[in-house]
Specification:
It comes from Acanthamoeba castellanii (strain ATCC 30010 / Neff). GO terms for molecular function: GTP binding; GTPase activity. The chain is of the alpha/beta class. About 40% of the residues lie in helices and about 20% in strands. Strands 1, 2, 3, 4, 5, 6 and 7 form a seven-stranded mixed sheet that branches. The structure holds guanosine-5'-triphosphate and magnesium ion. The site of guanosine-5'-triphosphate has 23 residues, from helix 1.
Length: about 240
C-alpha cells in the first residue's frame, strides 16, 4: 500500500491499486465507465490487454481515497500480459455475470491466477455479480455469496447498465483497505506515545538521580562538622579527615 505523506497544508491521500478481473463480457469495463464517467455503452468493445484509470473517492470515512483501477481483458489470449498487472494489487474485484453460470464457475481460475502473482490473502477481494438488471438470472445470490464468504471475501451485486451498487462495490473495497491503514496508523501512534512516555520517565529518573548526586556533593562540601569531620548528609555519613 502507498500511504502518501501529505503535502504541506494538503489532506492526506490514501492510494490503492485495485484490479478488476473476470471472464469476457461480464461487464468489467462497463463498471469502470459507469463509475468514472457515469456512462453505459450497450455495444461490446472488448478490452485489449489492460486499461487503466484513476478514480478519486471523496469522503470514505471522512478520508480521500485514490484508486488506481486496472481493467483486465477477460479473453484468455491476453493472459500472459494481464496477469503481470496483478502484482502489487491491494484490492481485487472478481466480476461475474449473474446471467452466465460459466463466468461464476471461472472465478476459481481467476483466483488461482491472482494467487500466483500476489501473496494469497494479502489483498481485499470483493466478488461482484454484475447485470442484476437482466431478466434471466442464472446464478443464485445465496450460492455466490456463500462461495465468497467461505473464502473471506466481500460480496456485492450490481448493474453497470442502471448504476445500481456500482460505486458501492469500489467503496466497499476502499473502506476495508482504509480501515486497515487507519488501524496501522493508530497502532503506530500508540507506540510513539508509549515510547515518548518511557523516554520521559527515564529522563525524569536520570534528572532525579543527578539532582541527588549534586545535592549530596553540596552537602558534603558545605556541611562538614569541624570537630568530627562528619558531613551533614541526611541519608548517609561520610568521614573526612579533620583539618587543624
Ligand atoms: N444488461 C446489462 N448489460 C451489461 C451490463 N454491464 C455490461 N453489459 C454489457 O455486457 C457487454 C460486455 O461488457 P464489457 O464491459 O465490455 O465486458 P468486459 O468484462 O469488460 O469484457 P472484456 O473486456 O472482453 O473482458 C456489453 O455489451 C455491455 O453493454 C449490465 O450491468 N447489464
Ligand atoms: Mg473490458
Amino acid at each position: 500500500m502507498t500511504d502518501k505523506r501529505p503535502l504541506l497544508g494538503a489532506e492526506k491521500q490514501y492510494h490503492y491499486k485495485v484490479v478488476i478481473v473476470g471472464d469476457s463480457f461480464t461487464g468489467k469495463s462497463s463498471l469502470l465507465s459507469r463509475l468514472s464517467d457515469k456512462e453505459f455503452e450497450r455495444a461490446y468493445a472488448p478490452t485489449i490487454g489492460v486499461d487503466y484509470k484513476v478514480h478519486q473517492l471523496r469522503n470514505v470515512q471522512g478520508k480521500n481515497v485514490r484508486l488506481s483501477l486496472w481493467d483486465n481483458a477477460g479473453d484468455r489470449k491476453f493472459n500472459s500480459i494481464v496477469t503481470n498487472y496483478f502484482r502489487g494489487a491491494e484490492g481485487v474485484l472478481l466480476v461475474y455475470d449473474v446471467t452466465n453460470p460459466a463466468s461464476f464457475a471461472n472465478l476459481k481460475t481467476w483466483l488461482a491466477e491472482i494467487d500466483s502473482k500476489i501473496v494469497p490473502g494479502s489483498a481485499t477481494v470483493c466478488v461482484v455479480g454484475n447485470k442484476i438488471d437482466a431478466p434471466r438470472r442464472a446464478v443464485s445470490r445465496d450460492d455466490a455469496r456463500s462461495w465468497a464468504f467461505e473464502r473471506g471475501f466481500q460480496y456485492m451485486e450490481c448493474s453497470a447498465l442502471n448504476g445500481t451498487n456500482v460505486e458501492e462495490c469500489f467503496v466497499s473495497v476502499a473502506t476495508t483497505l482504509l480501515n486497515h491503514a487507519l488501524e496501522r496508523e493508530e497502532a503506530e501512534e500508540e507506540e510513539k506515545l508509549r515510547r515518548a512516555a518511557a523516554q520521559r520517565k527515564s529522563t525524569t529518573f536520570a534528572a532525579f538521580f543527578q539532582r541527588q548526586r549534586e545535592h549530596a556533593g553540596e552537602e558534603a562540601v558545605g556541611a562538614v562538622d569541624g570537630s568530627t569531620g562528619r558531613c551533614g548528609l541526611s541519608s548517609y555519613f561520610c568521614f573526612l579527615p579533620r583539618w587543624h
